[in-house]
Amino acid sequence: MSAIRGGIEQSRERLVALVLLLQRAWRHGALTQEEIVRELKIDEFPMTSKGPRKVLAYVGNEGAVRQKFERDKARIRELGFEIETVVNDDASVGYKIDPSSGYAPLIYFSSAEQRVVKLALRFTGFGASGVFSVFSEAPASDATLLASSFYTPTLRAVHLHRALMFDYRSKVEKQRIVEPLLISVFGSSTYLIARVKGGDEIKGYRLSRMTSMPTVLPDTFEVDDVTLEIARSWRPEFSKALAPVDVVVSTNENYANLITRQFPGSLAATLKDGRVEVGISFDGPGAALRFVLDSADRLRVVAPKSLRIELQEWLKHVNRGHGVAVESLKFEGPATNDVLGQTLQLLHAVYLSEDGLRISELATRFSLEASHVRLIMDRLVSLQPMFESTDSPGAFPAHVIKDCDDWDHESDDDSIYRADFSDLGEGEVEPSPFMWRDLFELNVALREASRVYDDPAIFSAIDKIEAATSSFVQVDLTTNEELLQDIRDAAQNHRQLKVLYTPGVAEDPQSRAIEPAELRVLNGHTYVRAFCTTRGDWRTFRIDRINSILASSPVTETRPPDHVTNWLTQVGEEGEEVVVVIESRLRWLFEPLPNAQWTTTNDGRHAVKFRISGPDFLDHLMLRAGAGAVVITPKYSSAGHALASRISERL
To answer: For residue 545, what are the domain limits?
Structure first.
């Protein structure tokens, strides 16, 4: 507890007090640094004392105080809040926060809509740092989509039709100023589709490659329907003049069936030798090459000749090139949850709960110790950051009160924290519990879930979000999963299925008897967690690789519990560690890997460290990467070489 009561908690209270205070100042008048430094007080828990005492939040000489104040403002901006600097009538400089810069409009979901929101978040998942914990009573599971504070200013800029400025890393890192049009999700990757300011070019910017908090500029812009239609048609492989490519490949009957299911409109013909030729049309040569690489040695390219030549050249460079010594690299550890963001999530969960939430409920949702929850929430209850100023607008800025069942033993009581807005002034509205990024994450989750769950409440919830944001979120479904509904029904109705399943690197299907339990989405594909009676254990199956369902029957036995909580991304938590050095243009391929860690080499390339479930996974990953990626872990220095040779022999 001493660590909790140390500098971290004092920093937390100072930041929370400052952000809530500056939000109140938006209506009541900007506060100067001098006012804040002179009057802002926080609780201090001395090691020799059981209770808190009030101390000034900012102490020290003028330079030290200024530095701390500027650092605090920067941390607040990192969550997406816009701190406005104003010059008062007496020429003093004041600060205030526009609440709408961080918080989206208040939305009231019906009980049916709240139910489908929880279901959708469980299906898609944004992890503990996303909106999942604000809604779900259960602990957050593994994140399958990026939760980023960058969504807040980005979505707000789309909503307001205002220009956006950010630093961006592609081949080189530089500042970009764009006119944002919409946000699109392709697989598990989120892109801002925007028009370059001062021109007509429409480009996509991957949010994971933004290296600074986007800034919403005052410049507004107009956009017509034609421009929006171009933005909606943008894809990661977009070019000004896409040239459709018709591809013919030869494979066995099983893999041909898998291809025709994944690519509606493709044509298949069986040859005399039993092989099957499949014809598929792609938007451009890049998409055609990616398909062939994903299929690896399970097919042979028949036509066009240009694709065979391009593939042959590609294979020459798989996992070839110069690397660096693994020992010379220092990787950053996993990002830790910011104390201000964590506190605001707890606060928003309480705002959203009509009856309030107990300490135990909050501890479970956010994976915190009960004592830590109590410490954070008690400080929000008593937070009066400028309590000695009788005319201050800062009274009761957190709007949280505490109900205790046993006040005589308060320190052990499972108390309830609930929102109380009775102190709001006339004309003031209740604060929204939703950040702009929360609504984006909800929208994506609901759109993904609508593929599986046919519930009118999903679409009414989406309509409410769209009406509040006046923006369009596009979720691109890259795979055709025709058995998705059948698998979902089996999970809901506790049925056992006998299926034919083609594993990720195999040509031929295997017969499996499975009992589906839960569905989740990762990297644009739907997976099912099921008890496999064929293997006698829990297994994870990708639904678009299930060839057919041969039989269905009720589940008659009780299965052992599944002890793998984060079953979807366990490939990132188990297995051997591998380090790959890549050129910056290939980051998109490695960024979705669960729990990957990154650093930069001395020559400006990027190094990524991750775990692999087996050598086959790494072979296929290096095949897809091609030139510009090299494994520097000695044991796997030849990863992909044998696979590239086998494919080359078929050309």
So the answer is: 484-565
| Long-range contacts formed by 506-515: CB under 8 A, 24+ apart | 507/251, 507/252, 507/254, 507/255, 507/298, 508/252, 508/254, 509/254, 509/547, 511/550, 512/541, 514/539, 514/541, 515/490, 515/555, 515/559
Rounded-to-integer distance, Cα 431 and Cα 421, Å: 9
69 lies in some domain: yes
Q: Residue 248: phi, psi to the nearest 5? A: -120, 130
Q: What is the pTM of this model?
A: 0.73
Domain-located, residue 298:
no
Domain contains 582? no
569: which residues sit within 8 A by CB, 6+ positions away?
A: 142, 143, 144, 522, 594, 595
Give the pLDDT score at 394: 46
| Residue that is last in its domain, among 50, 80, 102 | 102
In a domain, 133, yes or no: no
246: enclosing H helix or E strand: strand 245-251
Q: What are phi and psi of 644, to 5 degrees?
A: -65, -35
CA neighbor of 629 nearest in space, from 587, 576, 601? 587
Query: Which residue bears the tokens 């017509």?
Result: 224
Instruction: Look at residue 526 in the predicted model and tell me its pLDDT.
Output: 85
Segments of the chain with pLDDT less than 70 = 1-9, 44-52, 125, 127-129, 140-147, 171, 188, 237-242, 332-338, 384-396, 477-480, 523-524, 569-574
Name the DSSP letter for residue 585: G
Neighbours of 302 (CB within 10 A): 15
CB atoms closer than 10 angstroms to residue 52 = 16
- Which of 565, 586, 617 is the endpoint of a domain? 565
